Every structure is written in C-alpha cells, then in structure tokens.
Amino acid sequence: MAKLRTRQAISAAIRDEMLRDPNVVLLGEDVGDAAGVFKTSEGLLEEFGPTRVRDTPISEMGFLGAAVGAAATGLRPIVEIMFIEFLGVALDQLVTEAAKLHYLSGGGYKVPLVVRASAGAGLGFGAQHSQSFENWMFGAPGLKLAVVSGPRTAYGLLRAAVADDNPVVILEPRVLYADREEVETGGSGILQLGKAERLAEGDDVTIVALGSMTKVARVAAEAGRWSADVIDLLSLIPWDRQTVLDSVRKTGRLVIVEESPYTGGWGTEIASYVAAEAFGGLKAPITRISCPDVPVPFAEDLERRFLPSPEYVVAQVTELLETGKKPQPWWVQEGLA
Amino acid sequence: MSTVSERREAVRSQPPARYERMVEIRIFEDRVKQLFAEGLVRGTTHTAQGQEAVALGVASVLEPSDYVSCTYRGHHHALALGLTPETVMAEIMGRSAGSMNGLGGSMHLSDPAMGLLPTMAIVGAGIPIAAGAALTAQVQESGAVAVGLFGDGAANIGAFHEGLNLASVWKLPVVFICENNLYGEYTPIAVSTAVTDIASRAASYDMPGVVVDGQDLDTVIGEIETAVTRARAGEGPTLLEMKTYRYSGHSRADLATYRPDGELEQWEQRDPIQIYEDKLVEQGLMQPGDGADLHELYRAKIDEIATGLIDAPAPEPSDMFRNIYA
User: Is A236 in contact with A147 (CB distance < 8 Å)?
Assistant: First the structure.
C-alpha cells in the first residue's frame, strides 16, 4: 500500500508491467525525457532506456499504427495519446485495424495493445482539449474500453489492460491526475476488466457513474436525503450488465451520471438495456444526468456549469424520487436549449 | 498438394518454381475475375495480373520468419508467400475451406506461419503497421525484417508520411515497397501525385529511394536483397518503387476504359512472366515449350479448384462469433 496520485499510480502500473514482461514498451509524445505532459511516465526512461520508452513524432496515425503492428508480432505496446482528441487522426488504426486483426487472421494474430488517453473537462483546456469521446469506441467489436476513476482504479485497470491479449483503451480523466489515495500495488491491486464496483449501498436508487463522475456521484449520495447504490462502471466495453441489473431490480430506479454531451452518450446504452430487461420492475423513468449538447466552454464558471456537480446530482435525484417523473436538465429548466 | 512451407521454400530456392508460381498467380487471377463476372462470387476483388514479379521478389528474398504487410490487392502476395490456391480461392469465394473460413473474403488474407499479416483494405494502413512489425524485430533483436507493400495511391495518404518518417527516425528494419501500377483506383497517377517517381520522396525521410523495373524478377530480387541486407544490418529502412502495371481495372466492376489506347498492349510487351521465361530458357533452366505446358497445367488445376468450390460449404453462423476477442 502506498499513497499515490493518479499519475503516479499510472507510472507504477507501467513500471510493474515493464518489469514483468520485457515485451512491454511505452510509445507516445513526450513520454520519455519529459515523462509525459501529465507526468504519467516518471522515471521510466531512466529505468528502462530508450529502446522500451520512446518519444514519438507528433503523428498518432504513425505511432499507433506501428503499435498495432508491434502488438501483432510480439510486443505489448502501451501507447499514450496525450489528449483523446488526438486519437481522431488515428482512429482507423484503432477501430478498423487493431480491433479487426485477430478476427481477420482467423485468430492467428493477437493484438495485445493498450491505448491510454487523457480525457474530459475541468482544467480550462477549452473545446478541443476537454472532450470525453467514450462513444468513439462503441460499435467496433474487438476493442475493450475502461475509464479510470482515481489512483487505485488507474493502477488496477492499466495492469489488467497490459496483461490482456486484446486492444484495450484506457481513458484517464485529466481532472483526476492529481487526486491521491491509498493504492495497493502488485498482483492484488489488479482489477478485472468488464467488472463494475459498488461503492455505496442503498435502497432508493441506483446511480451508475464512470470516470470523473464517480466521485461526483459518491459525494452526491453522501449528501442526499435518500440512500443509493453507487456503481462505478469502470469498463464500458464490455460493461457489467449483471451488477447494474441486480441493483436496479433492488432499487427500481436508475440514474446515470455522464461526463459527455446528452446525445449519444454512453449512458444511452445502459439505459436502453436496463429499460428492456427490467421494464416491469422500474418505479420511475430512467434518468440520464449529462452535460449539455454544447462544446466544452473555456470560462471557468461555464465549464463548472457544463459538468454535472454533486449538488446538481442531488437535486436531480431528489426531484426524481419526490415526483416519480424524470427531472428536466438544467438547460431545459432555464430555457437555454 | 504441397504444404504452405514447401511452396514457400520452393520459390526461395528454385528459379523455375518462381516462374511456375507467377504462372499460377496469373491464371488464378484470371479465373477470379471470371468468377466475379459470372456472378458466382459476391462482393469485390482486386486482381494483380501484370504485378507478379513484385510478389515473387518479396517471397523469394524474405524468410518465413520475416513480416509482410500488404494490401487488399494481395492474392499474388499470398500465393507467392506460399498460401495454396485452394485456400485462397475458397476464401475469395466465401467458403469454409478458406484461409479465414470465408469470413474475410478477397481483401483479407493472412498466414502467421509465412509472416503474412492480415492484408489491409484501408489504403495506407499497412505502412505504419509494417514499421511496427519492424519495431518488434528491433526491440527483440530477432534479426527479422518487415516489408510494407502498398500502391502508388497510398503514397498520398498521411499514413505513408507518418510511417516512413517514424521508421527512419527509429532506424527500423523495414523495406517499403510501392507497387506503382500507375493508377489509384480509376485515376492516373499524374492527376493525383505531385511527383512522377514515388521513390524520390525517400529523400524527405533520409532513406535510400530506388526506382526499380518491377517487371524483371531478377532486378526486383536484387533490389529487395540489397534493402533487406541493409535493414538486417541495422542501417534502417529503404523505399523501393516497383514500376509495374495492372492489366485489369481497379476492382471487379472496373473495365479500365480510362486507359489510353495502346497502353496495356505496350506493357504486355514487357510481361514479367515472359521476361522471366526468356531468361530461364536462355540459362537452360527451362526448355522452350515448357511455359506453354505449365500454363495448360495450371489452367486445368485452377479450373478444377474453382469448379470444386462452387458447391463447397459456407461457414456456419457460429463462425461469425469466433475470434473477435483473443
């Protein structure tokens, strides 16, 4: 056990995997000398040298593509995409190449590739460096996707991802890099991909959250005058249907808290599944708490408003419980959209 | 039926086997084209009649433990590398006997034992992937090299620039081979590409760039050998541009009406199979008349394979749920 920041937990996970397997390499812009712009690879170049810790040109299609080829032929590359937005220029390599090579070789090739990317708002980076884009990975069978919610899950998910024989995308909410908590390192700190965690237990409502919204949901549940099952989904592909369904069958209500625009957010997948599978057991409409359908604003007050806050989650859940009706999002209540 | 590795070893060691394989490829591709025209196979296909020498060059020089990344115009490479006409034809026809159980089709062939990475149906995508296979060789110090094959059309997509630059700054053991068949889909190269010789772009990446007569197998082999030797010695990548020609259109539906009159006939005067046959006869490795006999033999053989596959079983529905995750 050690008290680590998220960025330190990431470095520790990469280090432990590099020690475990000489085929693990780290590729990305400024991951070597600079130790990553978010300091997520501190000490790795010094310890493992430039053959295994490589600064790349600013060319995501090139180095992510190279990582796909390297993964298929025996390495286990970890690729850092500095901002998830930069994955856009390399998406082909991820969804059409990496995700398909195992299938397109009749199982002959495996692609043990990890793509790590910082994601999300909250740091004043503006509209092109604050998005989440979990939904880019949906609809591409062959990929796995998990989202970090703090130092402990950063360590546990990353180690699981490197050990996995499939391409796995790990999103790291930028706003969490400096968060600190006790982290169990070593084998017992490894989490299972595809498994959610229940962080709080209650009877009135199930709150499903992901990434940076996990903390928001937990704080809200502590403050609310109701009791909630708070579930950190952790993995989106595949997602833990059973844990969510069991909880909703108990509480009869589902609230999903997402850091993404309302339209096409990952919560739609969870909502549609639960609505169909638990239809008769629902006591209230499924409610998605999300960001509005706008680019991420820069001005501090607006960016804060853009993101669901614990207070907002408390208000929305309270209204749902009191009225039995789906509360309108703030931008509708205020007539803004 | 000889095994895949025996077929590969044959072209690596015996010039007459290279000739025979080129004949096999030519007749195979003609038959594929015919099957599509007859409506017996669905989807699309991209044949490579006229480009056989490039495929035999790669297969003759590389070891099976080396890596090859090529494109959706890849039947010739798969056959040259050793895959059997039976499994490749079955794959193209969507039959369970295919190299991928019929789940891939014409554009998706692969065989790890021969180093053939899944052929890529996205233009340029295989270029950085070849660099990545070379990265494995470099990190593991295995001595392997990678060959990244692509067409002239791919020389204009970002993956070309990113892949070649990365390979050069990291001195990766990779040989980039452009099969310049003068057309990117339906568009002639002069309309789409600022330079006449793709090889001249190598200067931007500080690597050797060589224009090669892609119709002369011995020349092709010689240039690939030089580049592979350089790569294995840790001296970095090379860009080879094979000047060649696609006798057929881009894909199944393309009749290539955009070609100037006489262009095809001019290239047929420099047919890679004929050029190699003349050499082997001159060297006494073949007798005059052997070539015609072999053509006859392969026409019958490929016809038998294709005919036999028409009623062969399709894959089962359960097969589509396999091999999505390892």
Answer: yes
